[in-house]
Design goal:
Blueprint (H helix, E strand, L loop, with lengths): L1 H11 L12 E5 L2 E5 L4 H8 L1 E3 L5 E4 L5 H9 L23
């Protein structure tokens, strides 16, 4: 899952220029998604959530927005996400009618 590592480094580059050296990676084993997150709690939060500018506008979304759909593809579980807490993305064809 190279996209997860690329996205985590993209987010981290907004904070530290050495992010390109990180070992952040995503992988699949069976029906499990494995994510090697950064080592610091602050960096984990930034990587999962998003990068905002001084006005609070989202500049770069974090990886969490892709995780519910990824898990759905892996194991057919459907995780409902409350948009007011955390944004997630699914193509229209993968959404359940509410």
């Amino acid at each position: 899952m190279p996209g997860f590592g690329e996205k985590m480094r993209q987010v981290s580059l907004h904070f530290v220029p050495t992010a390109i050296l990180s070992r952040q990676v995503g992988a699949i084993r069976g029906q499990s998604l494995i994510l090697n997150l950064p080592g610091q709690p602050k960096a984990i939060k930034e990587t999962l959530e998003r990068v905002k500018d001084e006005q609070g506008n989202v500049m770069v979304k974090g990886i969490f927005s892709a995780i519910p759909y990824c898990l759905q593809l892996l194991s057919e579980i459907y995780i409902d996400i409350r948009a007011e807490i955390c944004e997630s993305f699914r193509p229209k064809s993968a959404r359940r009618n509410s």
